[in-house]
């Protein structure tokens, strides 16, 4: 607090010292204003030469206000805010105030927010606040998008759930609760996880119509609930393998014979160009050939020249002519699905076993189906694959690339994922009277390699040119053909030849797809059913005895194996007498 008239009094504004000294003092009674009581009478006897502090403050305010007016800035109130008008119960200070103007003390003023202040008067700026830059200028412009996008809003109510019943190949079923937006790929991954299967991206969800004799594999992007809403009460979903779902991306030339494919523009015929023409919406690929077409509402079939374009499936009314006036629309692919005939000969009197159907989802009557038959399996595969490519286009390629990208992301992890039961195992040494735990990792690895080598020597194949024989196994030889292989997924027991062919067709006609079964002609023999170049072949596995021990062979005893597990392991690595190596095995999973 400053003491007026004291010898040690210091004034912070030397430039205004003369003006202050020349200012005539005010009487204390004149300081009273609204809301301020008059000072006591004891102030009236103050000496005239004392410095009047109230007059000093008044003159300082007037001087500062005059400076602000000169610099074209808005006047300031005592609280540091811009003056927007007279405060309630207070008089406005004029810039050219008289030297002896009464002092107006500040009254309580409601301070507006900065945003509201700028909205009401954009010319006003708060000088008492620091200039903080806006970190999001793009959100403040008039043409900017809203700050809250649909993805940034809080999640709404949970999506509706629905129960879906899925069947397996062996007749078992499982009811799964899924969301309304779950795709076929998501449901397959869920079933793989719950069934403890290997997720090799070859599982598929099949739409099966037994009363119509039709079935198809759902595309990975299709919504399960949406597809189920178009199915009849007799229809159901099947969970099975389909190795040929995206095989045409790997070997396109095997699916599209040259005599069936034509282009509106020049094509070099390479694999890449062939797929690009189908995936590119601006290109005009065309599949052409003869098909047996069933007339709607009749049992008769006619052989017609058919061409498939992006606009739909057409048949020629005059031979093989493709003139517009001779083409008649058979089916539109945009709102239809492509199915395979299960028993075309028996149910529809089809001329061949290679039938397919173009069906509108809402139509579940046989008389409304567009049924067609090809001459062989390769032609039917070509037609069905071309319909899928022209209908879905890049969606199919994206479905094919998603597992590849996921596999590439996981390839950086060199250490394989181990199960909990495997992590709980420890290396043991039972060579002595009591067992001991092998704590040295190097010793444990050496023991594992030695044990594996001894197992292969005792149970490995017998090579006639090497002159070596297999040692007797640790279990009775009579249990080898009846116990060991029956626990494997590739062994399907006592099924007929027709059933084995049906299973391979359902799971995809790709090279190397196989299964083993009991032989119907020889009770002691087995049969290897193998697919090669979209054709199914059967190879008989005959038992042979050598020095009182039973072996199995595919090549009349030249290469012998102690059991079927060794035989399958060998031909998965070596082609041998087979047309190709064993790559994929047919499997049936119980849900």
UniProtKB/TrEMBL annotation:
Residue ranges with Low complexity bias: 94-105
Domain (PH) ranges: 284-392
Protein name as it appears in the record: Growth factor receptor bound protein 10
CDD domains to which the protein is assigned, alphabetical: PH_APBB1IP, RA_GRB10, SH2_Grb10
Domain SH2: from-to ranges: 490-586
Source organism (scientific name): Capra hircus (Goat)
The keyword Cytoplasm belongs to this UniProt entry's keyword annotation: yes
Domain Ras-associating: 160-244
Region Disordered, annotated ranges: 1-50, 78-105, 124-160
Subcellular location: Cytoplasm
Gene Ontology BP annotations: ERK1 and ERK2 cascade; gene expression; insulin receptor signaling pathway; insulin-like growth factor receptor signaling pathway; negative regulation of D-glucose import; negative regulation of insulin receptor signaling pathway; negative regulation of Wnt signaling pathway; positive regulation of cold-induced thermogenesis
Family classification: Belongs to the GRB7/10/14 family.
GO MF term set: insulin receptor binding; signaling receptor complex adaptor activity
One GO CC term on file: protein-containing complex
Coiled coil: none
Keywords annotated in UniProt: Cytoplasm, Phosphoprotein, SH2 domain
Compositional bias (Pro residues): 143-157
């Amino acid at each position: 607090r400053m003491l007026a008239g004291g010898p040690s009094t210091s004034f912070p504004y030397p430039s205004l010292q003369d003006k202050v000294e020349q200012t005539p003092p005010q009487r204390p009674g004149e300081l009273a204003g609204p809301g301020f009581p008059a000072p006591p009478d004891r102030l009236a006897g103050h000496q005239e030469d004392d410095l009047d502090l109230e007059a000093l403050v008044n003159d300082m305010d007037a001087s500062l206000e005059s400076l602000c007016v000169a610099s074209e800035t808005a006047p300031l109130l005592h609280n540091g805010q811009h003056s927007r008008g007279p405060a309630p119960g207070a008089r406005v200070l004029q810039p050219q105030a008289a030297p002896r103007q009464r002092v107006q003390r500040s009254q309580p003023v409601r301070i507006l927010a900065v945003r509201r202040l700028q909205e009401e008067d954009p010319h006003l700026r708060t000088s008492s606040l620091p200039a903080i830059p806006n970190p999001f200028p793009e959100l403040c412009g008039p043409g900017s998008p809203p700050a809250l996008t649909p993805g940034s809003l809080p999640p709404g109510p949970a999506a509706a759930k629905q129960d879906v019943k899925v069947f397996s190949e062996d007749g078992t079923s499982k009811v799964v609760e899924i969301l309304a937006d779950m795709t076929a790929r998501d449901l397959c991954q869920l079933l793989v996880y719950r069934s403890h299967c290997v997720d090799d991206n070859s599982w598929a969800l099949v739409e099966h119509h037994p009363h119509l004799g039709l079935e198809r594999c759902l595309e990975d992007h299709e919504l399960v609930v949406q597809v189920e809403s178009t199915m009849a009460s007799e229809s159901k979903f099947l969970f099975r393998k389909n190795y040929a779902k995206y095989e045409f991306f790997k070997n396109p030339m095997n699916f599209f014979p040259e005599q069936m494919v034509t282009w509106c523009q020049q094509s070099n015929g390479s694999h890449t160009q062939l797929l690009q023409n189908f995936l590119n919406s601006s290109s005009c690929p065309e599949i052409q050939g003869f098909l047996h077409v069933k007339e709607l509402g009749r049992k008769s079939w006619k052989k017609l020249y058919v061409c498939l374009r992006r606009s739909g499936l057409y048949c020629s009314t005059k031979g093989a002519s493709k003139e517009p006036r001779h083409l008649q629309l058979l089916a539109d692919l945009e709102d239809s699905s492509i199915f395979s005939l299960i028993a075309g000969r028996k149910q529809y009197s089809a001329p061949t076993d290679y039938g397919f159907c173009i069906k509108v989802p809402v139509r579940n009557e046989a008389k409304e189906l567009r049924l067609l038959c090809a001459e062989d399996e390769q032609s039917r595969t070509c037609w069905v694959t071309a319909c899928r490519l022209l209908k879905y286009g890049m969606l199919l390629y994206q479905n094919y690339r998603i597992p590849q990208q996921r596999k590439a992301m996981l390839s950086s992890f060199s250490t394989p994922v181990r199960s909990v039961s495997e992590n709980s195992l420890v290396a043991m040494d039972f060579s002595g009277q009591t067992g001991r735990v092998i704590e040295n990792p190097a010793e444990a690895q050496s023991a594992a390699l030695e044990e594996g080598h001894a197992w292969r020597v005792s149970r490995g194949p017998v090579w006639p040119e090497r002159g070596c024989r297999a040692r007797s196994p640790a279990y009775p030889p009579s249990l080898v053909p009846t116990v060991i292989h029956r626990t494997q997924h590739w062994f399907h027991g006592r099924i007929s030849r027709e059933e084995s062919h049906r299973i391979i067709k359902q799971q995809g006609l790709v090279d190397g797809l196989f299964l083993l079964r009991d032989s119907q002609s020889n009770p002691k023999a087995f049969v290897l059913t193998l697919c090669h170049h979209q054709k199914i072949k059967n190879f008989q596995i005959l038992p042979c005895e050598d020095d009182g021990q039973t072996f199995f062979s595919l090549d009349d005893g030249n290469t012998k194996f102690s059991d079927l597990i060794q035989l399958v392991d060998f031909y998965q690595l070596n082609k041998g007498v087979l047309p190709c190596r064993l790559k994929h095995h047919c499997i049936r999973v119980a849900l």
